[in-house]
Design a protein that fits this description.
Largest sheet: 7 strands, antiparallel
CATH topology of the largest domain: Jelly Rolls
Strand order of the largest sheet: 1-10-7-12-5-4-2
Radius of gyration: 24 Å
Strand content: 5-15%
CATH architecture of the largest domain: Sandwich
CATH class of the largest domain: Mainly Beta
Distance between the termini: 42 Å
Number of strands: 12
Number of domains: 2
Shape: globular
Structural class: alpha+beta
Helix content: 40-55%
Order of helices and strands: HHHHHHHHHHHHEHEEEHEEEEEEEE
Number of helices: 14
Amino acid sequence: MQIADALRLAIQHLNAGRTAEAAAVCARVLEIQPANPVANALAARAARRSGDPAGARRHVAAALAAAPDYLPARNLDAQLAADHEPVEVAERAYRRLLALDPASWSAWYDYGNLRQARADDPATSMAPYRRALAVAPAEDRPAMNLATAALKLADTAAALAVCEGVLARQPSHIRANALAVTSLYDLGRADEADRLVGWGSLIRTYELPLPAGYPDLAAFNRALAAAVRAHPSRRDDWDPTMRAIRGGALVTDVLKHDDPAIQGFARSLAIVLDRYVKDLPSPATDPEHPHLRAIPAGYALDAWGNILGEGGHQSGHIHNLGWLSGVYYVEMPPAVQDDDPERAGWIEFNRPGYGIPDTGRATLRTLKPETGLLALFPSYVWHRTVPFTGGGERISIAFDLHPR
């Protein structure tokens, strides 16, 4: 095989997710041409993907030694620095990259993320995001991060304008609608924001139909709680940057288990989801509403379990990949009470998360969770849970309905 053919094969392997195969092809090329910058850059990509940052760094250094201006290697150099080096080192790497390739929207976007997330400086992230959008106006990722930075800086009108630009192209874009809701509240346009949130019309509660084989819902919930606790996918360690859960345990793919209680829950949930769609206002009553105009003809379901102990909670978040989201309450701790002014263990809607300041202008809504209750809401609606004390566990099953 010729070197060029081998490198093309390595790229195909990487693009298909065959990391080990790509690394093997690159290794054979590097036996013949140790300084080949393309092979070293591809090997670095494979090493980074497989969790070997030291190996990735060695290959990047070899590629840059042979070809200092080779853009894929410069890009990897910046990404590795952002992953593992101090902020100032990563910033220098991005400046070198952008000096060579100022037309790369993704490099400007990554540089903005470095400034906003790692340097905690939303003000200096806005210029890179704007440069990214100047190069690629249709890309929604820099637009959404620009809007988030603007909200952090109380530049609410700018945030709303960015969201409206995205929504003109993608009216049901989850994050754009979430940030638009917050912007509208902050600008004193609560009626418009409340219409998007839809408390009582789009946010609804249902009692779960009793699955077959159980004398009552209490007995079913006891069986379901035991199944969630003992689930083979339970994880007591998880990446807090990837999940809203704080404390407690997470059960991924909770429905992928043959336990009778879990399968009974899945069947009853499908009944409620169909009922929710039938209960929605007709799209004709508000044809521009982003939730109503996106009612899916079919859907797939992603579900996970949350087991929270004392002090555990869910931080404010949205569900970027859904159309409809929801939660079923399996077991509640003693602290969850009707007359609690602190709303310990309750779910709260409309307070923004992700570091966006709460201006106090949103219409906050709270719901007391009760075993057997299902709460459903548009995936762009902000929600969080209030921490609780006093012992016990708060067990719930959350889920997203994805249009198919």
